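Database export, one record per block. Field names are fixed; values are copied verbatim from the stored entry.
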Amino acid sequence: KKLIEDGAQLIDVRVDHEWDAGHIAGATHLPLDELAGRVEEIDKERPVVLYCRGGNRSTMAAAALAEAGYDAVKLSEGIVGWSEAGLPLDPDDGYVAESGEAAAVLQARGKVLPK
């Protein structure tokens, strides 16, 4: 949180349905599978904080960016940890969505309720 407050770029590497359900204010949505093709959107002169749901995807993204010369770290515990710490999500009624295509389909059909 301190890095973000000090001006670090915040990048959400989750998929669309996860972003739409809830994200951290001020974050840029850059799904992991689009990272290589959109890396020029990230300022190499500023620190980067990446997050996903729990940490796996953001670990991979942070490692790839660090290898490319970025000052990149992942948000410990991902957005799950952020939410569990009582920190806000956008939109105001946002929630941490389950990852995966099946979860997105079930949520879209209304079969899975937000936690």
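Remark 1: The chain has a mean pLDDT of 89.
Remark 2: The first strand starts at residue 9 and ends at 12.
End of record.
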